[in-house]
Amino acid sequence: MDKQKRYHGEIWFLGKESQKQFGILFFKEDDIFIETNLHSSEMVFKELQIVGVFTGLGYATFVDCLIQNQTSGIIESRVYKPKYLFVSNEHIILTENLLIKEFYVINEAIVKWINHAVWYNNQTNSLSKKEFTDQYEIQQDEFMIEIQQFISYRMKNRSKLVISNHGKVKFILKEAVSVLKAIEIYDQFQEVLQFLRGGSSKFSEFKFQCLGCNAWQEVYYNDKKLSKSTYNFIYTEYKDIKSELSKILIAAYTNDNFRFCLHRLMDNFISSGISHSKRFTNSISTFEAFCKIYSGIDQNNLKKYIKNYEEIFKSIGKLTDEEWSSFAGKVIRSRDYHVHSNQKNRGIYSDFELLYVSFLFDFVIGYLLAKNIGLSESILDKFINQGNRVYIDMKRTNQILSANSLKDE
To answer: Is 337 exposed, middle or buried, given 0-12, 13-18 or 19+ CB atoms closer than 10 A?
Structure first.
């Protein structure tokens, strides 16, 4: 499927093939659109399902089609914005009760994670490349994940051959799941990728094996549950984490407590346009959730939670004893100001400071999660070192850049 193309074909409502109409399928900012004369005689805001066939694409099923625009008169027209698009070369995909056992996603963030470029060696007259498939058993005989890098070749014109690296993650399940559950499983992998390398990217293919005909079918949706890589969190290369990746994947898919804390932690890195105060309160609530589950402290007390992890806060934030003595109190006053509207509170963090205190808590939580599942010291050190760079070095630089000369006079 090429999102740069416009596909032409015929579409109809399911079970009403005799009423088919011409339609144009196109993509805009990664959303799906259909322009057509097909419309219901009833007043509706969305059509649950539209099916059709398109030249150069195949059979298509559109699900949850919001009416984006409509015109009426002698000729009625509609512009639909479907949430999901299913494509098959074999048959129309009936999405009701659709189940999946095997599916894979091609995501170029995996290529960046592996970090091995294809290049031509003039001395040996050969292509240097890295192709592999690694398997990770999540649950014995129940759930398997494969991470793969492979090469594709295509002719750009008569004189050019394009060679590309691709990264793929494949999920193999014993028990069939719904499409939405499959997307949830993939999203969980994206959170692991976000946790380990600082970002994901939009998939280029999402395919599943049809249980009826065994052919590989495609599903497309505008995946918005990701963030562009800003490297504010830790960055590991695949080869550095490979020997310990099973621990993380097993925890992410089988440990409800770890998964809950990871999801809350990654919210700050996946969400866009979030205010500094909201980011700060998210970090505090995630830290409290982690401590409630893992710290062993019976009383839900933020000050005790912070004091309990004094060593790691000091290591990541390079806090002096003097700074540490007032740290917990200032965090609590700032939390109460923004959460409970205690506007009389004094000695709270500025909006700028809230961002970096939030980062500090995020690195502490990431470190503690990694330590809790037994990751090596070399990985734990990445949380400390990157936390130092963000909380100390980046904070200092941005403090200089953001200084307001008029205000500071």
So the answer is: middle
Residue partners of 375: CB distance under 8 A and separation at least 6: 244, 247, 248
Helices and strands in the chain, H and E counts? 13, 14
pLDDT in tens, 12-66: 999 898 899 999 999 999 999 999 999 988 888 999 999 999 999 999 999 999 9
- What is the Cα–Cα distance from 34 to 294, expressed in whole angstroms? 50
Consecutive H or E run containing 240: helix 238-241
Here the tokens at position 206 are 């999402």
pTM: 0.89
Helix axes 351-372 and 321-339, enclosed angle (nearest 10): 110
Question: What is the rounded distance in angstroms from the CA atom of residue 268 to the CA atom of residue 266?
Answer: 5
**Residues 105, 65: contact at Cβ < 8 Å?**
no
- DSSP secondary structure code for residue 229 in this structure: -
Query: Which stretches within 104-226 are classed as H helix?
Result: 108-114, 179-197
Nearest to residue 193, comparing CAs of 130, 248, 144, 247? 248
Residue 145: phi and psi, rounded to 5, are -120, 135
User: Measured between alpha carbons, how far is 283 from 219 in angstroms, rounded to an integer?
Assistant: 34
Residue 155: phi and psi, rounded to 5, are: -85, 120
β-strand partners of 54: 9, 58
d(CA 219, CA 207): 6
Output the pLDDT for position 235.
86
Listed residue (31, 41, 37) closest to 62, CA to CA: 31
Per-residue pLDDT reduced to its tens digit, 53-88: 999 999 999 999 999 998 887 888 999 999 999 999
Secondary structure (3-state) at 262: helix
Residues of the chain with pLDDT > 70: what percent? 94
CA distance 71 to 59: 27
DSSP class per residue in 315-369: HHHT--HHHHHHHHHHHHHHHHHHHS--TT--S---HHHHHHHHHHHHHHHHHHH
Neighbour-count burial for 130-149, b at 16+ CB within 10 Å, e otherwise: eeeeeebebeeeebbbebbb
Number of residues that this document lists for the chain: 409
8 Å CB contact between 19 and 67: no
Q: How many Å apart are CA 213 and CA 59, to the nearest integer?
A: 14
Q: Residue type for 396, please? A: R
Pairing of strands 99-107, 119-121: unpaired
